[in-house]
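Progress narrative, work stream C.
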Amino acid sequence: MAKDFDRVGSTKGVGFEKESRDAEGEMDMKGAHRIGSASSSFPGLNNSGSDQETVKRMKGLGFLFTVALTLLGFCHVFVAAVERNDEERRTYIVHMATSQMPESFQERAHWYDSSLKSVSESAEMLYKYSNVIHGFSTRLTAEEARSLQGRPGILSILEEVRYELHTTRTPEFLGLDKSADLFPESGSASEVIIGVLDTGIWPESKSFDDTGLDPSPVAGKASYEATLGPIDERKESKSPRDDDGHGTHTATTAAGSVVEGASLFGFAEGTARGMATRARIAAYKVCWIGGCFSTDILAALDKAVEDNVNILSLSLGGGMSDYYRDSVAMGAFGAMEKGILVSCSAGNSGPSPYSLSNVAPWITTVGAGTLDRDFPAFVSLGNGKNYSGVSLYRGDPLPGTLLPFVYAGNASNAPNGNLCMTNTLIPEKVAGKMVMCDRGVNPRVQKGSVVKAAGGIGMVLANTGTNGEELVADAHLLPATAVGQKYKGWYPTLTGGAAFSSRGPNSITPDILKPDLIAPGVNILAGWSGAVGPTGLPTDKRHVDFNIISGTSMSCPHISGLAGLLKAAHPEWSPAAIRSALMTTAYTNYKSGQKIQDVATGKPSTAFDHGAGHVDPVSALNPGLIYDLTVDDYLNFLCAINYSAPQISILAKRNFTCDTDKKYSVADLNYPSFAVPLQTPLGGGGEGSSTVVKHTRTLTNVGSPSTYKVSIFSESESIKISVEPGSLSFSELNEKKSFTVTFTATSMPSNTNIFGRIEWSDGKHVVGSPIVVSWT
């Protein structure tokens, strides 16, 4: 019998996507611990009071946790390290063509079970999926999987994939404090539900106080563990309780209640609040110590549709693959069909190009930007020079005298000793000294722990060329300061794109510009779990109510919460309309006129870094015009990228055949940005040859009657851009008008990118779209 996972309810929350990674693969801030499944009696909640007392507290607050629970994702041994054979059972997701169900079956579940039993009497379904996809997950040998693939009605069988998890200031920074009266604070606002797929939540957090909200329904079904063995309750609980902190942080960022006097050790002290303070949170626990597994993610997405969530927030990602093989993309398509906006983190693999995750056009892909806030610390050398850095250390200070200073690379016999990895430092060479470690590979906070374990009394953490001048503050276990590359300084007065934030181009569909936009993702203060210290290290015994961490995990729930505000203000808007409003009103220049900076290079960032720009929620509330999209538009897009009928059916969950008499083009997808990938040389000619590409778009009026005129900006004469017509007049609400953009491109060397922008304005609204023309 297929296993359901617990649902305990939904109300409040604040936000999360995994902390930033350095480009070398470093998991910044802390480890990726994941939590387990919960039953209606919440086993494992004895971390803080009795199980029954905790349940009563949750119910009294009207909380609705929805927990996607399976132990399928719990594994202490990396699967890749295990030699497999055909007799070993693995987890598979089986996609079914329900239109092919034989008439002899009355229910899909019976057909699924019969199909499964035809290849294995002992195999059991782990999950039945009925909303975002059609099918089930199970454990099979390779031979059984091959046999099942040949059965009637089987669209595809995909092996399970593991994904990784990729405040007080941000509401002010985004203008929400001065514009709170513009957004609904009751009624429709409290009816919006934001589903957060993460590591669970910490229910005692003050950010989850739902005083003043109407009671929400509490639903409960028994939860079951899946197949990889029982949860080790010495390391994580079976309940939806967050033992990691990441889920609490992301949920509270998205929709945390107002909490006065919030801070981390006195840093960033002020009033903490999420983006949508009156929205409700449905928390789906899909991530464990072993990672976030695709079967659990799909089960949570499936249940979220059933739970009628309005927004889904996923601060996680994995490797890139075609949309019909990507579980997040498949599940997000099903959610989009139900009118749910899906917001995902772009990833923390920047500043390398082609490093994005979650690039499907029906997903809102969020990169990370910085805040106009830092936590300054200083390094003073014996030669009289002083260097600025950042730190969140709060503890016993260093002695007020100069200390001996050693570079970790000179205090280690290991080839990577400069990185201060575990057991690489020689205690005799670092004891009683300040140690300089290079950033990269292992977590920043772990480097400090390694220095401390070897006898060092302080650390200077230096950026490498990959990080540029990006400075990320951490709550280190010893006195420590992060400094820029080679102590060259930093940019304390500017905000910009975070160096770790993953970058375009889009490796799956270059014609779709990603990321869509950026939001605050560096040094974000939000709620935290009481089960783990701020660094997440086992040796960190400190307990905090709030923590400051960084990553696109943090930027994603900002957009999720803001999307919730827009949904409350405009309940009739589609997911595409909400995304359009957020994108077309985003800014790419500071108020001074200076362009947003790329912190990795110190140069102006581009659309491959920031997408449409940095979110501006106040402007998004009244965008004037929007680019809307329907399910059929996305199906036509799939035809344009030459997906076969079976591949499209996996996403659409129904028979869909592309019309052979119709010409499909990605350029016709009504997206709020323009990406024009070209081959070099163009037109089969040499230098000076050119080609012409046309994109068609349709704008919908969501404001007052008005006439909009177009402005075109291009950074190079090698690309000529024209728009026809040059003005659009709207006389009524929801009126639609189309226009065509013509790109005439002169041949350029390979790997050349030209950036530009189109803006429609009526004098009150500015509806902007980024442009990138690339030669490959």
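Work stream C, second folded protein:
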Amino acid sequence: LFSLSTPFIIIFLFSFFFFELGEIVVNEVNFVRKCISAESSQEDLWGKLICTNFKVSFILQDAPPKQKSHLSHLLLGEHDIPLTCLEQVVTVNDTRGKKKVLGSNQKLKFNPTELILYCKDLRILRFCFDEAGPESAKKVCLAIAHYSHPADLHLLFGFEYQGRRYHESKVNGSTPRGGLRTPIFDRPSDWDREIKRTSASGWRVCSAIYDGRCSLPEYIVVPVSLADQDLKRYSIFFTDQRLPLWCWNHPNGSALVRMASISDPVQQRKIEQRVFTAITKSHPQRSDVFKSDLDKCLPNIQDIQSSFVKVRHICVIDPFEESEERWLSSIETSRWLEHVRAFLKHSAEIVYCLDGKNASVILQEEEDRDLNCVVSSLVQLMLDPQYRSLTGFQSLVQKEWVMAGHRFLDRCNHLKKNDKEESPLFMLFLDCVWQMMNQYPAAFEFTETYLTVLSDSMWIPLFSTFLFNSPKQRAQHLIDFAKNKAIPAGEDQAVYFPPVWDWSQQFSTKDQTLFNNPMYVGKGAACVQNGEVKTFTRTKRNYSSSVRATPSSLRNGLKGGEETLTRRGSLLSELKPDFSPVKVESPSERFFRDLFSQPADQRGLLIPLLMPSHVALWKLYFLRWVPEACIPKGGPITAFHKLSQLVDEIEILQSQLRQYKGPSPGSTPLPSPGGPPVNQRRMYFKASPQNDPPTPPDFLTSSFPFTPMGNLCRRSIHGTPISKFLNGARIWLSTETLANDTV
């Protein structure tokens, strides 16, 4: 072994890594060049291109230098791409001028000289076969195309990987579910805790209507006044039997509810009246119930998909060779930011009904599995600071997306069977969350790195979170999976096929600290007063300060003919601070004026500003792979670096203060010299020694913790005119709108 050259040792180690994961090497080709730059091949990398039943892997010929500038994934190498992450597999023959997009079981009539992989995480990877054998190159291209189009869900690598992992964990005596803090909402106790936490005394957990045929989870929360036999009788009139489902309760007693459309128009009024009556009875003040039909007031899934494809093309594929104004205009034309604003705006209107009108709200969508997921999650994020913590946010996604039956399999198009069903609704939601984080950076426990990593996890088929269309489909596949892998009947599904929330499966403890926001002022935020460590506490007044300014007529429910939900375009004026004193304010205008006239309560109700100039492009997600957009020692990461060091230093001092030995007769108090152990410190960037200069490290860029090196190879761009944008220029919907924007 010691006589082997370095390249062979590297290949041997990677082969051992494949074996450990249980992968099967399908095909491979040597002497492949991975393109780094389109201008010159001097920086290109040489190695072996391998296709397994899990990923496309590129193994460098020479030992790679140690990198500090990106996350180190425990299951994927720096040059690996999961097969489910591939959007298109394109083969090129330069000499014959041919190009072909490959699908499953297709033939290739020419020998490829180049392979281009377009990825769903916005990477574009190019491999050249100048020195490779033509037949080997053709075979590996066909293998990648074939295995990236699995014929069935059970062929995804996660089913092989988790089966192997389960039996290894049993041998080692580990209990994976024991370390999972995020509730899965697959048992009544999870729902009972949520009901108790939100004081929803008018609601109960029910499993009577679950028959394994609809897309509902086994346990749902319904009004106490509705008996099980009533629910069974009403369910047949709703699309896919999706009855009204409780989402959340406001401290004032109003409830957020979601439901599908009633399929029988003859019975619609009668059923709605009974449902409304039951929800009204669940309110301690018997307040009114309002319904919002999201299909009528928000973009549909096809519009969202179309706008995402456009903005992705503009940011990643198109060169930045036009003027800055033209580039910004292209972003506007894509309508992606317009859709983001629309969802945030409508969610704010729902918040007004719940918080300002003290009224329960029903979100209605035809199937209750797409738009409802986005809006219900955003409303709860705005109202409840619990969901702005890391565990709380994950429980929100688990509750309102996974267990509510969002069609992740179809919307992510993992099997690549129906492009018409594909739509980035979860990505849209994450963008909306980032907009709120961008405006209220101290209100969230997690960072934009966490949101980006979460979006990337959709394309790693190893976890149950993003693989299925419904709890029913998940249960059916996992029962079959357990039988095939000899897993005992009755074993916890979260143990043998875990969700994504156990991040130790993907990242080291050190890398997971990149998820922690140093500015977070939520639960447990500490300070030192008079030599004692104090912890900030949140009162109900902080939780919803706007309720105290609501007239009693609104708190008791709206009985008049006032418009319940403002029009889509009307909230913009409500968010402007310069209201005319002569104008008669509507209750909604007064609600938002009062809210924005006070300093933002980072631990209370949060409504994002929605002027076009306030809604920005999420640069870390859309531009992280673009070399021209990568600013050395620039971007938000520089502030994150300094704040992390400062917080780490404060926490060390607090730890020393807690360990301080108090005075005793005849003795001198001595401070404990050490702080918390390095592996228990929350910040990624540690406090610098006193003599070290506080300059950011050389590896920091605006793309950190990702790197564009080798992850986006298209024709080069000279004279990129977007420097103003990259330095923080605002994005707006139109020049005319900007001229009128005085905020």
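Residues 637-658 form the longest helix (22 residues). No further action is required on this item.
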